[in-house]
Amino acid sequence: MKVGAYKGYVISVFLRDEHCPPHVHVRGKEWDARFRFSFLNGDVELWDIEPERRQPPTAVMKEIREAIMQRHYLARDAA
């Protein structure tokens, strides 16, 4: 399920056949990154990038992490 986008990168949570810990996937043109997050304290951290040889610049990953930390990406109303 797409939860947002940042500068053309799609931020998704897969709802089927997924595993812990809670995380989102971010797909680039030549890579796929996963960011772990906590509902308890709002922490978000880069988990991994595949394939490693196609990693984007660190600054891009930092910007995406900061975007994911915005409340509207991971929060869902109970209503």
From TrEMBL:
Pfam families, alphabetized: DUF4160
Source organism, top-level taxon: Bacteria
InterPro entries for this protein: DUF4160
Name of the protein this chain belongs to: DUF4160 domain-containing protein
Organism from which the protein derives: Pseudomonas antarctica
